[in-house]
Write a structure and sequence with these properties.
With 370 residues, the chain is mostly helical. Helix content is 78%, strand content 0%.
Length: 370
């Protein structure tokens, strides 16, 4: 069981380009549709739970599924194996950056991969939407959530409002009152202002970020800049932008930007410390919240709240997908790749891994010819 978990999540970790929405879509395709480890309802419940806690959503999904499939050992194996490929790749990139003074470019690779990732997300949204959006209320909540997200409302507020709306509506329909409870995690303090650089302060900075960060990669950039550039002066602006760029062009969670920064600041020990700091809260939060998900589902009010969160989670994925489309579909070849991949995924059992590989090859070839 654990060896199977390791193989599956190592593969997903190697191929997970395109950001959290694409990562989650690949998990749905691999683990729900192909392997049937989870039902769509179970997958949606875990997705809703990850959206209510800080940290990297796709990594937390891997951890949740690992715990569901293999208990506490599975939790550790799935999470570590999903993260490991990105950590190794980013470490190599950081070594090259320190050794040669420049970041590796992968524009051609991303040119072909992004349209395929977009197709994978679109197919996953269609499948999950058929499960989560079965009533007029859930559809209305999803549309309202998408509108709020597009308008810039904080995603946590969107999720809470959606959950509360469904819970209240169902309780009113049953002629009772509604109640919903959201527990915020404690905010861990980092080192004090002006702290001298060292492995422990480095660990604490990334532990704090991992424990409190909601939102996109742009939010991560803001946190990193505030602590590492402005507050402590450990990095330059240029180094921070290079670190985020490497995190974006490599597979796996963007949080492996911490690996790059740690290596630049303190070599391999720094990379290990920074990586451990930023990902540790995700394991803790999932370990604490994971056993509560089935209990939440058994409660009528809490289950209704989770249904609202699930609808809003899909809406947030749809908004991210729309943003990805603007960046991915830039010309006729990328449109052709996206449409062909969507058709294949919808009508055959082809693995998204092969499509991503094909997209990467097309992108590299196009860059070489261009």
């Amino acid at each position: 069981m654990l060896s199977e978990l390791a193989r599956v999540f190592l593969k997903l970790g190697v191929l997970s380009f395109g950001g959290p929405a694409a990562h989650i879509a690949m998990m749905e395709e691999e683990l729900v549709r192909r392997r049937q480890w989870l039902s769509r309802e179970e997958f949606l419940d875990l997705l809703g739970a990850t959206n209510l806690i800080p940290g990297p959503n796709s990594t937390e999904m891997a951890i949740h599924i690992g715990r569901r499939r293999g208990g506490w050992p599975g939790l550790a194996v799935a999470g570590a194996c999903f993260i490991l490929p990105a950590v190794l790749i980013v470490t190599v990139c950081a070594w090259a950056y320190v050794r040669f003074g420049a970041r590796p470019e992968a524009a051609g690779l991303l040119y072909g991969v992004k349209p395929i990732a977009l197709a994978v997300v679109a197919i996953a949204l269609a499948g999950l939407g058929r499960t989560a959006l079965r009533t007029r209320l859930s559809i209305a909540v999803a549309l309202a959530s998408a509108a709020m997200a597009a308008a810039g409302v904080h995603e946590l507020l969107v999720l809470v409002l959606a959950g509360a709306a469904v819970a209240v509506a169902r309780r009113l329909a049953a002629r009772t009152t509604a109640a919903a409870l959201v527990v915020w995690p404690a905010v861990l303090a980092g080192p004090g202002a002006g702290a001298a650089f060292g492995l422990l302060p480095l660990f604490l900075v990334f532990l704090k970020i991992g424990a409190v960060l909601y939102g996109s990669g742009y939010v991560l950039l803001a946190f990193l800049r505030a602590d590492l550039v402005v507050r402590y002066g450990w990095l330059t602006e240029a180094q921070l932008l290079d670190a985020v760029a490497v995190g974006q062009i490599t597979p796996g969670p963007l949080f492996t930007t911490a690996t790059f920064i740690g290596y630049v600041l303190a070599g391999l020990p720094g990379a290990l410390v920074a990586t451990a700091g930023i990902f540790l809260p995700a394991f803790v939060f999932v370990a604490v919240s994971g056993p509560l998900v089935p209990r939440v589902r058994r409660s009528a009010t809490a289950g209704a709240f989770l249904d609202g969160v699930n609808a809003a989670s899909l809406a947030l994925m749809a908004v991210v997908t729309a943003e990805l489309a603007g960046d991915a579909l830039v010309d006729v070849p990328t449109w052709a790749l996206a449409l062909a991949a969507t058709a294949l995924l919808a009508t055959t059992r082809v693995s998204s891994a092969w499509l991503l590989l094909a997209g990467a090859l097309v992108g590299v070839a196009a860059a070489a010819l261009g």
